[in-house]
Design brief:
Structural class: mainly alpha
Pfam families: DUF4142
InterPro entries: DUF4142, Ferritin-like
Keywords: Membrane, Transmembrane, Transmembrane helix
Strand content: under 5%
Organism: Pseudonocardia adelaidensis
Strand order of the largest sheet: 1-2
Helix content: 40-55%
Protein name: DUF4142 domain-containing protein
């Protein structure tokens, strides 16, 4: 079924999953920069990425809630809200001093200013007046405490560092007490509070916090589209009609040549043995030819002798008879005259 999914869609799913995993690894590495894999050994025990994240988030909460509470102490219309602002400003100053002390002991770098989201809350609160200011201040600060309290509780139950555990207990006491202060005003809209989802989609709502959930959502969406595409193609192929293609007429079988039977091998001629112990026998009945003066040949009745030479030829012509010694050479003068006459 995977072969029926378009190659581009399969590649998009693979790329989205790889990017999501890479972003998650990068965030874990960036959060726990010191030490191997984000862990660092200290005299109070191992210090992990979650421990450093808690200290950082408490520090950032102090950086914006402290100044905003000081402002509320001056600008709030309700006396209760002004008193809440005074308490929160004083206690955030105490908590920030404890945060900087723990960070120095553990070697955790701290930010020097609030995040962009927190600065947006500060600007929103400052833009309000009258009762709107009171409600906006109480609601935004209560929402911020609701976001940091689950982080404190998680580290409190899972950390292996004794100093961080004690800091989490102290921070939780401050945050729970601040909840009581803010809720005592009667201005908290509980229905408007954000819901905390533990796990992957929990935590902050900044772009860096939402990167991994967004990429995971895209990967899951592409995988669902790929699965739907494969099932749709499978269902479509199952409804296809079978088309019967008529077979062509049977072709005439090719003419086969008759097989030739193997013929018996012809026996080779028997070798005739030669007797080289004596003279070659001479046939007596073979006539000899004689060249006449006119250039023609004349058969002579003489026969060759037993000595191997040829018998004398009639010398009535211009040519001398061949000697009985077997030599075929003629005298030089006779050869010259013979060649000229021819």
């Amino acid at each position: 079924m995977l072969r029926r999914i378009p190659r581009l869609l399969r590649s998009a799913v693979i790329v989205a999953v790889l990017v999501a995993v890479s972003a998650s690894v990068y965030q874990s590495w960036a959060t726990g920069a010191p030490g191997m894999n984000g862990w660092q050994q200290t005299q109070w025990g191992p210090l992990g990425p979650a421990d450093r994240d808690l200290i950082t988030k408490v520090r950032m909460a102090n950086l914006w809630e402290g100044p905003t509470s000081q402002q509320a102490e001056q600008m709030a219309t309700s006396a209760d809200v002004r008193e809440v602002g005074r308490k929160l400003a004083a206690e955030h100053a105490q908590l920030d001093e404890e945060t900087r002390k723990v960070a120095n002991q553990l070697g955790v770098p701290l930010p020097n200013g609030p995040s962009s989201q927190q600065m947006g809350w500060m600007a929103e609160i400052s833009s309000k007046t009258g009762s709107d200011y009171d409600r906006t201040y109480v609601q935004r600060v209560r929402e911020a405490h609701a976001q940091v309290l689950p982080v404190i509780s998680e580290v409190r139950t899972t950390t292996q560092n004794d100093l961080v555990r004690q800091f989490a207990i102290t921070s939780a006491e401050f945050v729970n007490r601040h909840h009581e202060y803010l809720e005592s005003t009667g201005l908290v809209d509980y229905a408007a509070l954000p819901h905390h989802s533990p796990g992957l989609f929990g935590g902050g709502t900044q772009m860096s916090d939402l990167l991994v959930p967004f990429l995971v959502f895209i990967a899951a969406l592409l995988a669902a589209v790929a699965l739907f595409w494969g099932l749709r193609n499978r269902a479509t192929s199952g409804r296809r009609e079978r088309i019967t293609v008529p077979q062509p007429p049977m072709a005439q079988p090719a003419t086969r040549f008759p097989e030739f039977a193997a013929m018996a091998a012809i026996p080779a001629p028997r070798a005739v043995g030669l007797d080289d112990t004596g003279p070659i026998p001479v046939l007596d009945d073979v006539p000899l030819a004689t060249v006449t003066d006119s250039g023609s040949y004349q058969v002579s009745p003489d026969t060759a002798t037993d000595s191997g030479g040829y018998g004398a030829v009639s010398d009535s012509g211009s040519h001398r008879a061949v000697s009985t010694s077997g030599s075929h050479r003629m005298p030089r003068s006779r050869r010259a005259r013979h060649s000229m006459r021819r």
